[in-house]
Design a protein that fits this description.
- The chain is of the alpha/beta class.
- The protein contains 23 helices and eleven strands.
- Strands 6-5-4-8-9-10-11 form a seven-stranded mixed beta sheet, sandwiched between helices.
- The protein is elongated.
- One of its GO terms (molecular function) is GMP synthase activity.
- This is Anthranilate phosphoribosyltransferase.
- Keywords: Glycosyltransferase, Transferase.
- It comes from Aristolochia fimbriata.
């Protein structure tokens, strides 16, 4: 597909906008149709205002875009806030058999007293305990009692407080919560028949309740069982108007319970593939290679997030990139690619077919797809995910999505933090049938490698640990899909490739600061942000086996040239403009 930008048309129009603290390094000019710099982007203000050109106003019906500068301000206002007392307890008990921290007697009393007063409608100056919170908390208590090792089962204090409160709670809690707390009538001192007899209100809840009986006992489900539950329940309606909707309490218990038990490969595949055909078969983009970037959807809260800028670099020499994510996601609620693109004036509501056009455009070559547009059923869970506190299985599987396919080679890159998820992520990539896959233990669990030299002995796998597979031109051992692959594992030391050890720039939830660092780097300003973009572009090219990246130092030089020539910045500016024209 030919570029939509004619060779005679300049991509830079209007007056220049200076980057803060970067006057010595020139000026950034935003393209027509994205941001009118005469209205000024106020990088250090509470909000950014990006005024569209007259043509864009007429076309889109917009007059002004206001985007918050802090990631926490992107939280949708319509989502009810969870109860903070119970949410804090969920952070301790709604986790794995080794990570759970039992509550002491005072903590347990505060939690159950809050739940009882909320159920009675007696809470004042505090949010009610939501159905999702009740489901997650009581499911966690049941799993701990039934299946966890002694060290993370109920403490003596939790047991005493529960024995005192349960006779009162059972009088005011709905049947689905009583079922979750004591599914077989064997956990509570004063047992009752509600749990053993509970079946749900319709066929969908019956399937969910049947699955929950296995999960609450510490067991696992099959691929078809997981997919059946997800397709029954989603998209989630949380406005209370749909009387046929499945109980949020039960579904929250299902999500947090599966995470606490540790998902099997079959369960993760169920989550990963359940909604592949939600909008029909994925379109095929006519590109010679395509890398799907799966950053953690809940973003960065501390360090510079570089992947958007890396994608612009790699696209400038023909390595097409697809980024996907959300505007805001718990539990971290950090900086995401969607926030940065929205702040800069790009269209962040592209359909999958519109994304395909931009990916094929010779002047762009990369694209961002919001989960809101690509997997609306999964996006309907954002509010519920805040109320269950801990990450559900979807936090792993959503990073390995294929919103588009390519006529050429495909690769997936994603990040991880917690041990135990490296192999499952690679398994999901192989299940997707891609030619190459890479998982990176980056900073904050993201996929960005750092130039900082590791000091001391790391707990678990070190930052910059990489593991993956790539296709071979020849070989004797073939996978079931007919692609011959080799596996690799390594720890990337940036010093080995000529980088100085530097601290990663901090952004501390500031979207504008993250953009400032990235744009300054794409303008050629040398420093930690520039080095991280070069390292992550060149190293990913090399590890995925991309054409022209057999020599890792040559791959780094190619990334530097893409930045220093201005081609990478031009790609980003083209994207901002053309995202409104597809």
């Amino acid at each position: 597909m030919k570029s939509q930008i004619s060779p005679s048309t300049s991509v830079f129009v209007g007056k220049a906008c200076n980057l803060p603290n970067s006057r010595r390094h020139g000026q950034i000019r935003f393209p027509l149709g994205a941001v009118d710099c005469r209205s000024a982007i106020r990088w250090r203000r509470y909000t950014a205002r990006a005024t569209f050109s007259s043509a864009s106003v007429n076309e889109l019906g917009l007059t002004e875009v206001r985007s918050p500068s802090l990631s926490s301000l992107y939280r949708p206002a319509e989502i009810p806030k969870p109860n903070s007392t119970v949410l804090e307890a969920q952070g301790k008990v709604c986790t794995g058999p080794k990570q759970t921290r039992p509550l002491n007697e005072d903590q347990a009393y505060k939690v159950l007293d809050t739940i009882l007063r909320s159920a009675r409608g007696e809470l004042q100056d505090e949010e009610e305990v939501s159905k999702a919170q009740l489901g997650a908390y009581f499911a966690a208590m049941a799993i701990r009692a039934n299946a966890f090792p002694e060290a993370t089962q109920w403490s003596e204090g939790e047991r005493r407080v529960m024995n005192a409160f349960w006779p009162h709670l059972v009088q005011v809690l709905p049947p689905d919560i009583i079922f979750l707390a004591d599914p077989e009538g064997t956990i509570m001192a004063s047992s009752n028949s509600i749990g053993p007899r509970f079946v749900g209100k319709d066929s969908r809840e019956m399937r969910l309740v049947g699955a929950l009986r296995e999960v609450l006992a510490g067991g696992h489900l099959g691929y078809e069982e997981v997919q059946g539950v997800l397709r029954d329940v989603l998209p989630l309606r949380s406005d209370g108007r749909d009387l046929t909707a499945v109980s949020e309490s039960l579904f929250s218990a299902f999500l947090i319970g599966q995470r606490m038990n540790g998902e099997t490969d079959r369960e993760l595949k169920g989550y990963c593939l359940a909604f592949d055909d939600e909008l029909g078969p994925p379109p095929m983009a006519d590109v010679r290679s395509l890398t799907h970037y799966g950053e953690p959807y809940d973003g960065n809260t501390r360090f510079f997030r570089s992947t958007l800028f890396v994608a612009a670099v790699r696209a400038s020499y023909g390595e097409s990139c697809l980024l996907h994510g959300v505007d805001w996601m718990p539990p971290k609620g950090g900086i995401t690619e969607e926030q940065m693109l929205k702040f800069m004036g790009a269209n962040t509501s592209l359909s999958i077919l519109q994304a395909k056009q931009l990916l094929e455009d010779e002047g762009v070559g990369f694209v961002y797809i919001s989960q809101r547009e690509g997997r609306p059923s999964l996006y309907s869970l954002v509010g519920l995910r805040e109320h269950i506190k801990k990450r559900p299985p979807l936090a792993t599987s959503e990073k390995v999505q294929q919103y588009l396919r390519a006529t050429g080679k495909e690769a997936i890159v994603t990040g991880f933090y917690h041990e135990g998820y490296e192999s499952p992520l690679l398994m999901l990539m192989r299940r997707r049938g891609v030619h190459s896959g890479l998982v990176v233990k980056g900073e904050e669990g993201a996929l960005s490698m750092t130039t900082k030299i590791r000091s001391g002995i790391a707990k678990g796998l070190p930052v910059n640990h990489c593991s993956g597979f790539r296709c071979l031109n020849a070989g004797s051992a073939y996978d079931v899909d007919g692609i011959s692959r080799e596996s690799f594992t390594m720890e990337v030391s940036a010093k080995d490739y000529g980088f100085e050890s530097t601290e990663t720039p901090r952004t501390d939830r500031s979207v504008s600061k993250n953009i400032e660092l990235g744009l300054a780097a794409l303008k050629g300003k040398k420093g930690p942000a520039y080095d991280r973009i070069v390292l992550n572009a060149g190293m990913v090219d090399h590890l995925l086996g991309c054409e022209g990246a057999e020599d890792v130092l040559a791959a780094m030089d190619r990334a530097r040239e893409a930045i220093d020539s201005g081609r990478a910045l031009k790609r980003l500016l083209n994207y901002i403009r053309l995202s409104h024209n597809v």
